[in-house]
Amino acid sequence: MTWETVIGLEVHAELSTKSKIFCGCTTAFGGEPNTHVCPVCSGMPGVLPRLNRAVVEYAVRLGLALGCEITRYCKFDRKNYFYPDLPKAYQVSQLYSPICRDGRLDIEAGGQAKTVGIREIHMEEDAGKLIHDAQGTFMDFNRCGVPLLEIVSQPDFRSVGEVTAYLEKLREILLYLGVCDCKMQEGSLRADVNLSVRRPDGEFGVRTEMKNLNSFKAVGRAIEFERLRQIKVLESGGRITQETRRWDDEAGESFGMRSKENAQDYRYFPEPDLLPLRIGEDWLEQIRETIPELAHQKRERYVRDFGLSGFEATVLTGHKSLSDLFEAVSERCGYPLEAARLITGEIMRLMNVTNTLPEDLALDAGKLSALVSLMMEGKINRNAYKETAEAVFMSGADPEAYISEKGLLMVNDSDAVSEAAGAVIAANPDAAADYRAGKTKAFGFLMGQVMRKLGGTANPDAVKKILKNMLDN
Amino acid sequence: MLNMSALKLSDAVRAKKLGVAEAVRAYLDKAAGNGHNAFLTVDGERALARAGAVQARLDAGELLSPLAGVPIALKDNITTAGVRTTCASKMLGGYVPVYNATVVEKLERAGLVVMGKLNMDEFAMGGSSETGAFGPVRNPWDVSRVAGGSSGGSAAAVAGGEIPIALGSDTGGSIRQPCSFCGVTGIKPTYGSVSRYGLIAYASSLDQIGPVGQSVEDCAALLSVISGPDEKDSTCVTGKAFDFGRDIPEKLDGFVIGLPRNYFGGGIDGAVRQAVLAAAEELEDAGGRVEEFEMPLMDYVIPAYYIIACAEASSNLSRYDGLKYGYRSASANTLSEVYRLSRSEGFGLEVKRRIMLGSFVLSSGYYDAYYKKALQTRALIKDAYDGLFKRFDMILSPVAPTTAYRLNENVDDPMKMYMGDIYTVSVNLAGLPAVSLPCGFDGKGLPVGFQLIGEAFSEKKLAAAAMAYQRRTDWHTKRPAGGEAV
Lengths: 473, 486
Description:
The complex is a heterodimer of chains A (473) and B (486). Chain A is α+β, with helices and mostly antiparallel strands and 473 residues long. Chain A has three domains: 4-285, no CATH class; 295-406, no CATH class; 414-472, Arc Repressor Mutant, subunit A (Orthogonal Bundle), CATH 1.10.10.410. Chain A is built from 15 helices and 16 strands. In chain A, strands 2-6-7-10-1-11-12-13-14 form a nine-stranded mixed beta sheet. In chain A, helix 14 (441-453) packs across helix 15. The longest helix of chain A is centred in the middle third of the chain and has 20 residues, at 216-235. Chain B has one domain (1-486): Amidase signature (AS) domain (Amidase signature (AS) enzymes, Alpha-Beta Complex), CATH 3.90.1300. An eleven-stranded mixed beta sheet of chain B has the order 1-3-2-6-8-7-12-13-11-9-10, with helices on both faces. The relative contact order of chain B is 0.14. The A-B interface holds A 39, 42-51, 78, 80, 82, 84, 87-90, 139, 265, 267-269, 272-275 and B 77-79, 85, 87, 92, 95, 97-99, 101, 196-201, 203-205, 231-235, 237, 311-312, 314-315, 318-321, 323-325, 335, 339, 359, 362-364, 367, 371.
């Protein structure tokens, strides 16, 4: 008998607003412990929250991009629980009226198109961090009050492939909207997995929730582990308990943290320190206008307007920093096709070799566009182009300076080429004879000799023409 | 000097007839006795330094407020940077804030001199100023009796002549009732007219800071200083500060005053009923028209208030966990012991009672039955008031069913204590302004007060009626022995 896996996701995205959700402190990652804090975010007695409007705008932007209904009169609620990383002992969140509802995201997994429902998106504040060392446990409140969006999907996934496709698409959208920097290793994008298994077309099974998933890979592994665990329990006649489980990526397994019976009662109630939020038509329109072109729209435009292949367009829009680079380079040099080829070819190869992530790419678009122009205007040949691209990538070299320093400027001077060709023919009479006798292979050999003599910088078209002329006549 | 109203004192200071430091010193001397346990902290050094700074500004011709140079004391739930702020709780016994409440900043800009911090019920929970960790406040009219609460220190200090004017806070009557018990005047402002930033929260949707003073005039002047918008408090929605001016209307012609008939039935002391009804007649003589009506929902206001206030309190007071500031149990070894023991030892009985009540009404399975119902009741009370203010300019009512009772008389009977809030809590539930002012004495020589309740942001109208009343009567000028002058 077969089992179907049913998965829903809760994705937490830390917003890249400049300041925190309820105070003016910076949201910058890191910093000495407790240096990004003030009385408000450290929960001193008597303080009050003041809502950062940018958080609402970011939430609405994402909601609109995911086709959500925007709650026009929404409220915040308090989620009460004791934990040392939560200085007020409550988290301001949204339970009763989240800002966005009923959206969807179209994905493609295993060649199949699918629509995943978005149940809701709500705004909340992040908690701080505990630092454990030999002397004890310390509290760092720098992250307290950093704004979060929790994006809750419907239980629409049936496979790891679908989950991964969704997460990748969601990350792409968050990046393109400029809402989140999506650095999973810094915790700015986190996913919790709700999973159950059932017989095809049967009732939904009892689900478990998995936390502490710090990479897309961990999400995939945790799903596979939990799916098999649940099936094993059920097939041996057991029952699944509704519980929260913690994924241990090193051990490759998850452990039960707390069951539903021991679940905390968060005693949610409306946050009395914040007035209900009204989102009027004008504000909504203003936000709508700030939504930039998204990846799939860019893909279509690259193919339509620039004549890029579907593959190239997909690679370039796979990450915002790549499409930003592509657009900057092609706009400056005016050769979009060649700019696309350079980035999807040589630059991507160098990124692979050096293990550079797109978000860490620090390439000067001006230098790349100068390089493309030099090539397109016939000033350098393909070999010099590749070599210079590598120098730009590795050490930020200036292409023109590098080319002149290395003597890579293409030799177009026909006298120099004629002289070299004449010398090569004179030095290789056998090969010349072979060519003249119809053995065209000999031409390649002679051509290579001429190129070599000219130090590799000659324009191959010019060499070919002149050499052929001299041999034929 | 000590017998001067706050406004007169400032007049003298600004006319250079009196030095700011001189005024502050005189009150420091008087407060040093602290015979009513009204003060928890007197900060003489800082006050004299502030007095010097205010004097320098006055001498430089800087135009300060009509209360410039006046010493003031604050209920100890109002945050003062560098000065211990305890909420009369062991939990915050050693807590020194790093920032000032918005009202403190406003007082300083206006040239008032903060002289100290005043006793109260622990975290403002109580109606007798007996629940604090540092001893009860005593009523200056009879030191064997309570001063009322929770702003008992504010009312007793003003009644005892230890400070010319003070700030209190009112969540369910906490300014008005102690004013009534101590024979002084207080204003509970409209919710959202005075910033709560730096007021240590008891019940966020009900708390409001307000003045306690010797007359409506003084209180109105102080309300002009502390009211107005504050970007640090999203619920402070007032467009601008109140501006009362000093013109007092002679007549109340055209004022329609509602008198809730059912407030005067069983449960109210005869002397209180008599004094309050006499106040209504006085206002009628001043030109007002008094009309009786039946106040709806009277049986529901106490339960609704205690459910909402305690629910919010249970959340607001969770931050006192022994980890960051405040009391930490010395015998705690594990995290859960730090929480459990610090809170068990750091909070008093009444605070713990309200935290438990509040946690219960918010817990899953009970939310709908209690908290949600209470919110619905609150909405009905608001609607009822909206309707009443279509008929009346204001409502006149008793503040409390009794005069000041004996210390320890009600501490073991919380229900009786809670019923003492019957006339005051609905005003907070509806977010309305009210003025509490003295209107006589009972047979034991204890003060009786009444309140005028208005629609939201009608402080000016309320103050006008109250000023007219105080111009025609002298109840507010009566002081207990030792309270009038030194």
